[in-house]
Amino acid sequence: MTVNPGPPEGRPHAPLVTETPNPGPPARGGRDAKDAALDAARAVDADGPLTTDQGVRVDETDNSLTVGERGPTLLEDFQLREKLTHFDHERIPERVVHARGAGAYGFFEPYESLAEYTCADFLQEPGRRTPVFVRFSTVQGPRGSADTVRDVRGFATKFYTRHGNYDLVGNNMPVFFIQDAVKFPDFVHAVKMEPHNEIPTGASAHDTFWDFCSLQPESTHMLMWVMSDRAIPRSYRMMQGFGVHTFRLVNAQGQGSFVKFHWTPKLGTYSQVWDEAQITAGRDPDFHRRDLWAAIEAGDFPEWELGVQLIPEQDEFAYPFDLLDPTKIVPEELVPVRPVGRMVLDRNPENFFAETEQVAFHTANIVPGIDFTNDPLLQGRNFSYLDTQLIRLGGPNFSQLPVNRPLAEVRTNHRDGYGQHTIHSGTGYAPNSVGGGCPFTPGGGRLPEGVFEHYQQRIDGAAIRRRSPSFADHYSQAALFWRSMADWEREHITAAFSFELGKVGDRAVRQRMVANLTRVDQSLAEEVARRIGEPAPQPSPADGEANAAGVPVSPALSLENQRATGIRTRKIAVLVADGVDAEQVQAARNRLGAEGATVETLAGHGGTVSGRDGQDVAVDRALATTASVLYDTLVLPDGTVVLAADTDAVRFVGEALRHGKPLAVLGSGAALFEAAASGRPEQVAGVAVRGNGQEADTAFWDEFVALTEQHRFPDR
Ligand code: HDE
Question: Residues 270-279: pLDDT tens digits?
Answer without folding.
Answer: 999 999 999 9
